[in-house]
Amino acid sequence: MIKIGDKVKFKKYDETIYTVVNVEEEHVRVINSTGTQLMQVRKDFIDVVEQYIDYKQRTDELEKRWSKLVDVLNKKYEYYKVRADDESAGPIEQGKWKIAKLELMMVLMTMAELQEDDND
């Protein structure tokens, strides 16, 4: 059900998003974001994109959080690397840091593979 104020776009055309200003039985009147283009369009030629906008915002938010997580893990990896190379800590302590460093490296590699798969 299309209503006044909905954000819509044309099916199989451009990515321009229009706002519905009038709803009739078979047609809707839409206007572009600058207010310069008012058109009457058949209802079956448009898609409501409110959900699309929400999904896009959510995707952007998740990408930012993913990047932040990668940054934090990279910093931890650098810290573990320094601790693993610290010879003053003794062999057992140094071994623990090396294991932690390798485990974190595997996590980072898996995350990089997931990111590459997502980009393809």
Describe it for me?
The chain is of the alpha+beta class. It contains two helices and five strands; from the N terminus they run E-E-E-E-E-H-H. A hairpin with a 3-residue loop joins strand 2 and strand 3. The relative contact order is 0.10. The model has no long low-confidence stretch (mean pLDDT 80).
Summarize the main sheet: 5 strands, antiparallel
Number of separate helices: 2
Quaternary structure of the protein: single chain
Tally of strands = 5
> Strand share of the residues?
15-25%
Distance between the termini: 35 Å
Percent helix, as a range, is: 40-55%
The ordered H/E elements are: EEEEEHH
Q: Give the averaged pLDDT, no decimals.
A: 80
> Could you say which overall geometry the principal axes of the C-alpha atoms support?
rod-shaped
Structural class: alpha+beta
Q: What is the spatial order of strands in the main beta sheet?
A: 4-3-2-1-5
Q: What is the gyration radius calculated from CA atoms?
A: 26 Å
Question: What's the structural domain tally?
Answer: 2
Low-pLDDT runs: none
Chain-wise SSE layout:
Elements: E1 7-10, E2 18-23, E3 27-31, E4 38-42, E5 46-48, H1 50-85, H2 91-119
Antiparallel strand pairs: 1-2, 1-5, 2-3, 3-4
Helix pairs in contact: 1-2
Can you give me a brief rundown of this structure?
The protein is an alpha+beta fold and 120 residues long. The protein contains two helices and five strands. It has two domains: 42 residues, Roll (SH3 type barrels); 59 residues.
